[in-house]
Amino acid sequence: MKAIVVGGGIGGLAAAVSLRRVGWEVQVLERASAFGEIGAGVGVMPNALRALEWMGLADEVRRLGTPRVSGGVRASDGRWLVHLPDVGQEKVIAMHRADLHGVLLRALPSEILFNDVEVTGVEELDADLVVAADGINSRLRGVLLPDAPGPVYAGATAWRGVAPGPYDLPISQTLGPGGEAGILPLGDGRVCWYVAAVAPAAADLDPLELFAGWHEPLPSLLRSTPDVLRHDIYELPLLPTFVSGRVALLGDAAHAMTPYLGQGACMALEDAVTLAVCNGDLARYDALRRPRTQTVWKGSRMAGKFGIEVRSPIASALRDFAFRALPPTLAVRGMTRFSAWEVPDQVHSNGSNPPVN
Ligand SMILES: Cc1cc2nc3c(=O)[nH]c(=O)nc-3n(C[C@H](O)[C@H](O)[C@H](O)COP(=O)(O)OP(=O)(O)OC[C@H]3O[C@@H](n4cnc5c(N)ncnc54)[C@H](O)[C@@H]3O)c2cc1C
Hints:
Helices cover 34% and strands 23% of the residues.
């Protein structure tokens, strides 16, 4: 069986690795002139690590990333609202996005990777399965589901970067009125960070000014970062299906979500493994992936409502109070609830389909 994967981001490459593991012949078509990944950090959550384990790449990810467990949520003045000691929760692997992308890329033979190929339709693609992993502005989604609405501005803009350091910091998220920030320390002393603020799309804003009064080391991290990336945050309204004929949507093309749970790329990794174990049964892929990703999509939106979208200082103080009153076990459960995912059973070529849970 032959699959063509459109898009060579984290989702597309993970799909290629996974499909090859169950015996498919795969080609990856990428419109950029080279396979690569910009961006800053990514937290590989336990669910994503299980997907990578199935792909045979978890050891490489553990080797390049930094397992982190302590940390928690802080207020903009630096007070800990939830401080998680090591109470048995699973670790998050902090790594640079380019490193995760590199692990996937190295797992694929170069002769199946084609760059400078912009795919505009599916008719010309000679394959039993087409994987549309062409990102939030997916061209193929527009062809397959012409009535589905496109991405919508989520009301906030984000800046990301990697500060040279060296720093020795815990992993943390900071919430303040109308903004939030995240710190993901890498093992070599560099620190991946992001800050996000409620703002109109494409607003002319200086993050150094916006976050000047927030706790250290946030202002120092921003100041010392040579290349800062800016992204307005968009989300994709929920789709009625992820499949059409021999085409499956995967990753941001299917379910781009706000970044407040740090699960977007993790979902793409889950999608990839699920598509492979479904072994061409796209109805099953849709039945397994749509409910799961749409639950996380809604969770991420909710996290935004109680996080970045709380704009008044009074409401923000009330939120901080509620956080501090949470028993640690509840706080841990709240933070890890979307990490409970296991690789589904494989569909075998004799047609025996395991049930959809
Ligand atoms: C500010 C921010 C912070 C984030 N933080 C996290 C985090 O901490 N953890 C996490 O898990 N996720 C995070 N995410 C989400 C994550 O970045 C995405 O979910 C993930 O990168 C999606 O991967 P993808 O492969 O589906 O899409 P993409 O990475 O967008 O890849 C799509 C690929 O398809 C190619 N392409 C597009 N159109 C065509 C075409 N017509 N023909 C051929 N090729 C094409 C593109 O060039 C690109 O290489 C964050 C997102 C943002 C915006």
